[in-house]
Amino acid sequence: MANQVVFAALIALCLANGYVYGAASTPPPARYTITHEAVFEVIVKENIHATEILSRGKIVIGLFGEIVPMTVLNFVTISNGVVRDGTNFTFDNSPFHRVVKDFCVQTGDFLNRDGTGSVSIYGTKFVDENFILSHRSGGWVSMANYGKDTNGSQWFITLVPARWLDGHHVVFGRVLQGMDFVQQLGEIDTYPGTSLPQKYIGILHGFAKEVNPRYDLSPEDLFTGEDIIVD
């Protein structure tokens, strides 16, 4: 019951702000306000059982909780970890199971850890909240799905502009720090005919926090594919 109340409240909030669920064309926001930051420590090893860490990096993601509150709440909750029906919802130890050069790197399957599992804090899946934000450059963070209104826990980071995804995938964040490392992940070789990386890329630990005060990204920040300097 509590989950249903939260879900209903979030829908009411989004509708009150004039967001249209599933709309492929929506006006841009007046401000791109960062409400939360998520931090992930990511490692690369020869394989999942190897003890030697080949490389390590920190990825800091700014989240747009005023624009996509439902999607951000799902991401923040899983980033910080929560147990639901005996299942540990956490991105810790989740692999980047998909690498597509000059496109994206993808993670978030904490169920099966192979790209076949996805679940949200609202249930198996939840709606496309809106398509206000665009995949306008490398560094944007977006929900992976398998069709309309099928968001769960999987997400990806763009390596290049990917605006053909606009209207199909919900963007909810932007990499603030660690974009060089993300680009390195995008260069890892995959097995022939697949997007499965030949090395193990995994989230060692992650968490998310609300920022105070909140801050806005500049128009220049929206199009850069590099790290964003936050004052």
From TrEMBL:
Gene Ontology MF annotations: cyclosporin A binding; peptidyl-prolyl cis-trans isomerase activity
Record-linked Gene3D superfamilies: Cyclophilin-like
Enzyme Commission number(s) of this protein: 5.2.1.8
UniProt entry tagged with the keyword Signal: yes
Domain of life according to the entry: Eukaryota
Catalysis: reaction(s): [protein]-peptidylproline (omega=180) = [protein]-peptidylproline (omega=0)
Keyword Isomerase set for record: yes
Keywords, ordered alphabetically: Isomerase, Rotamase, Signal
Signal peptide (from-to): 1-22
Functional summary from the UniProt entry: PPIases accelerate the folding of proteins. It catalyzes the cis-trans isomerization of proline imidic peptide bonds in oligopeptides.
UniProt record similarity statement: Belongs to the cyclophilin-type PPIase family.
Protein name: Peptidyl-prolyl cis-trans isomerase
